[in-house]
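Thread title: Can someone regenerate the structure for this chain?

I was given the following input by a collaborator and told the matching structure tokens would be attached. They weren't. Posting the sequence so someone can regenerate them.
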Amino acid sequence: MIKAMQPPSTPYLQFNRKQWAALRNSVSLTLTESEIIKLKGMNEELSLAEVAEIYLPLSRLLNLYISSDYRRQTVLEHFLGTDDQRIPYIIGIAGSVAVGKSTTARVLQSLLSRWPEHRKVGLVTTDGFLYPNRVLKQRNLMKNKGFPESYDIRSLINFLSQVKSGTPRVTVPVYSHLIYDVVPNAETVISQPDIVILEGLNVLQSSSDYNYDPDHMFVSDFIDFSIYVDAPEILLRSWYINRFLKFCQGAFSDPDSYFHDYSALSEQEAVVLASKLWTEINGRNLRKNILPTRERASLILGKSVNHQVESVYLRK
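Best answer:
Regenerated them for you:
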């Protein structure tokens, strides 16, 4: 049996990489290397070993939690004498810009859908619930995009409420990183999922973070299990700058890109601009709004260089 390290006066059990990997419990890895390449982000290292040692044990834990939740639903149905539709299990994934939330979400979506139960896993990012740029400009919030006040929190909560009510067909606004805006009149349909993974900067923020009426519900009311992907800010800044350089060489060269002008920057100019954006926007948002929510998470993945998870903290 693996015994977790338990620092005094903490609500978390702490595991180093070797201890956590042992909790895989001989579960087979169902992803191939070519599939993993498709799942990883632009600026991330993601190996078979990382998936096997970190994400496979995590998917095993989540599958146990989800099975337990379904058993609880069955007990309630038996008590009430009803045969209601299964209520989806919602997993929240939070963390800084450039930390690798999207890759974590995609890997878990793929792994959770491959367990013997073959559950249907929907993936939603909170980017779709940002106010359109025209609204942000009217409110002078373009430089605060990604901050709590830039989200249509009522729409996000309404979406989550519908999911948790068992609504069979729920729509989600579409956000395009190419045009850096919500796509007008576009939507994605989430249809009768067993699991919904909600990924975004703001997943663990409370109503007070949004100056939202405290008498109303807020995002964390609907999340069954939450994950915070963590890394030291010095690494986050470096990952952000490296990703920005790759965007300048790739996505920004598209004439339709909102940041097309950046593709003409020299590497030195791009580094200077990315550093400024980190200091004035992303780093500030991290320290003020994102990092303070870390200890609200059910589980924390602590990353080091090359996006490798070195420690895992699981709430007791």
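The two ends are 17 Å apart (CA to CA).
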